[in-house]
Amino acid sequence: MRSHSWIAMAVFVFLASFAATGVAAEFTPVALKVPEGYHVELAAAPPLVDYPIMANLDDQGRLYVAANSGENLSREDLEKQLPGFIQRLEDTDGDGQYDKSTVFVDQLTFPQGCLWHAGSLYVASSGALWKFTDNDDDGVADQREKLVGDFGYTGNAADIHGPFLGPDGRIYWCDGRHGHEIADKSGTLISKGKAARIFSCRTDGSDVQTFCTGGMDNPVEIVFTPEGEILGTVNLFYGGPRGDCLVHWQYGGVYPRKDYSQILEQEFTRTGDLLSEVVNFGHVAVSGLCRYEGDQWGSDNRGSIFITQFNTGRIVRVKLGDAKDTYAAEEIEDFLVAENHDFHPTDILQDKDGSLLVIDTGGWFRIGCPQSEIAKPDVRGAIYRIRRQPTSDSPETSPTAQATQIAAAQSHIWKLRRQESPESLEELIRYLGNEDPVVRQTAIRALLDWPNLDTNPALMTDLGHRVTSGTPAERRVAAWVLARWKGIAANEIPAVLNALTNDDISLEERHAIVLSLIMSGQREELNKALLAQDERVSNAAAIALEQLRRPTVAISDRHWLDIPAASQGKKLADSEKEQLLKLQADLPQGNPSHGQKLFSDARTACNKCHQVKGNGGQVGPDLTTIGRSRSRLDLLESILFPSATFARGFAPYTVLTDDGKVVSGIILGEGTDQIRLGIDKDQAVTLTSSQIEEIRASDISIMPKDLAKNLSNEELADLLAYLESLAAAR
Q1: Which of 26, 231, 323, 399 has the most CB atoms at less than 10 Å from its CB?
Q2: What class, spelled out in words, does domain 574-725 have in CATH?
Q3: What are the Cα distances from residue 95, in Å, to 87, 99, 103, 139, 353?
Q4: Is the peptide bond before 241 cis (omega within 30 degrees of 0)?
Q5: What local confidence, expressed as pLDDT, does residue 311 receive?
Q6: Which stretches of 420-499 are DSSP H helices?
Q7: Tens digit of pLDDT for each residue in 322-353?
């Protein structure tokens, strides 16, 4: 990580100028640090906005904010209360601070994103994708239309997010690993599955497609490059140790986690190894992101990815470089850091003036955050704006003539794609002969979802040739299109297989080529390739034939085990809160070195259940970076009252089996119709859905509640000091 000068922004100075907007008297902006040359302003605060989550701007600069009621609710309660809503914020005097708010639409479950497009607002709210239209522009939607559903959810926020407008004119969204069952308007089932996915559809909700999928827990947001490539944030991309990541999503790609391999094998077409990430940040709970467009912040920021981290209260800037035909992180640095543990950024977006808007949801959210121990609805969040300060010695930068030409060509390509006419297709195909490989790559990508492309055999043949020539990126996206439209003829199979022998082939390109071979259905030619001397060719043929022997899984009527939402734990009584606060006040500072020894002492045995830097048990959450996201009071509560809340993935359940037995523990693994339940992998039992009579979320933690009784106040302070010190780099 690059080091640089920091300046602490004393954001309270903006309160005076914000008085006219009715900022709550008790609201204090969070102190935020940004690099030298940037500064932070308050853009909106309570009571104008409370518990904002994600946002989007319309073409007039009005900000639509998906907001919450500040309560942690189960699916049942969300559907009863419908507490979610979308606000429209306006800056009526153009000073960069929002001063007017209307509720654009209410009676929603749990909205996690919105998109303004063509005069309507598209919203992903737990359970479905919606479209809302305000016909008279009074700031309140008059029409409500459910476009796509249904998507499973529990209230823990690991479900549907978005949507996002692709350069191809399609609507994209992310869905977490709670399952889905989608039917078209006639009631015909078109997709059913358990795993997380990136979906897309037309703007009317038709033609729903899966772009990629996998066992990861919670893909959150995506952005598009000018070439049409998709980058996105995802939580629990890896499960042990946990990895929250930035990913370059590949068409037809299948991603981790390996602990959900049964779902991966049964639901998806596999092309070999699972695909991987661009950056693994560790246990940080990534959320919204944006790709900086244009040069308003200088050429050094053009194309940078800004990513919010809920747990750590910071925003990181990732500068990408090429790695064969995917991306590699050339530079990762903290861009915004809060010194307050209750600052939880959930989204970031670029305004038309080049500034960045940062959404801080506040302290209310608990049941979906793996390190939130205490809900703090009194911390109501806010919206901040980051600006770059102009300086007289800043060099003026502008794109080169070549870059300008490429950008113009790419813009025209996507315009042709959205027009979707026969004339547009002819013009788009001409771009395949452009001298610039990036322009050719963009043109090929724009063909991916063009309707009925399989009726153009000459184009399919041309794309088949491109799989064996051109740059790695051209070869990869050409294989995508061939896979999408099953476009490889039998006589082209040998040449496509031979493309696997390129010395510069990447995992991503290999995946695309094997996927195109599978979708071709050319069994006879693939059987011949089993005898190839080059193992890269024979192995690919074997994988393709194996997948072709599997029954189709695009639509499945398998039974999915319905597991209830985890208990939120027992709410602390007033006397317990008083005990907690009194003990915190009485404790000395503590010695981290002594606390480290106590962590593995027989009286605490913390290391039997918790890992630190890869050492220890896996019964409870990994504590390697717990000090970055949890305050001293939070840590003390989890020791004194472990049943007050449960870390995500470690909630206890009790199961009554069909033969009358009672089994308790945490869910260690989940298959298509079974779970593994127990204290750890050595003491786990596997239960199928037919064996389970009843499954209930428990409100009693498996962590012993009398742990602190074995320690003196000095020792307890030492243990807390050690946990607070666990704030290692990502």
Answers
A1: 231
A2: mainly beta
A3: 20, 10, 22, 21, 12
A4: yes
A5: 93
A6: 422-430, 437-446, 457-467, 472-485, 493-498
A7: 766 789 999 999 999 998 889 999 999 999 99
* CA–CA–CA angle 379, 367, 683 (5° rounding): 145
Question: What are the pLDDT digits (tens) for 361-412?
Answer: 999 998 765 566 678 888 999 999 999 988 655 555 677 889 999 999 999 9
- Supply 649's token pair: 């993935």
Give, as one character, the DSSP assignment of residue 151: B
Type and span of the H or E element at 101: strand 100-108
Buried b (16+ CB within 10 A) or exposed e, 101-113: beebbeebbbbbb
Contact by Cβ (8 Å): 34, 40: yes
Residue keyed to tokens 């000091």: 721
Instruction: Report how far residue 559's alpha carbon sits from residue 507's, in angstroms, rounded to the nearest whole number.
Output: 33
Helix (H) or strand (E) holding 281: none
Choose among 629, 646, 686: nearest CA to 285: 629
The string of pLDDT tens digits covering residues 14-52 is 333 344 345 666 788 999 999 999 999 999 999 999 999
Tokens of 559: 């039974």
* Residue among 118, 167, 191 at smallest CA distance from 175: 191
Are 268 and 230 in contact, with CB atoms under 8 Å apart? no
Separation CA 235–CA 160 (nearest Å): 13
Structure tokens at 625: 């970076």
Tokens describing residue 373 = 């121990």
Question: Matching CATH topology for 401-548 and 574-725?
Answer: no
For 613-661, where are the E strands, in sequence order?
A: 615-616, 652-657
Sequence-distant (6+) residues with CB within 8 A of 257 are 214, 215, 216, 217, 236, 237, 238, 239
Tokens of 113: 């994103």
Show Cβ contacts of residue 446 under 8 Å, excluding neighbours closer than 6 positions.
167, 168, 228, 413, 414, 416, 417, 428
What fold characterizes domain 401-548? Leucine-rich Repeat Variant (1.25.10)
Residue 652 to residue 268: CA distance in whole angstroms:
30
For the chain, the domains span 401-548, 574-725
Among 516, 511, 71, 7, which Cα is nearest to 276's? 511
Q: Average pLDDT of 704-714?
A: 80
From first CA to last CA, the distance across the chain in angstroms is 10
pTM: 0.78
CB 318 within 8 A of CB 305: yes
Predicted pLDDT of residue 93: 95
Which two three-digit tokens encode residue 302? Answer: 């053009």
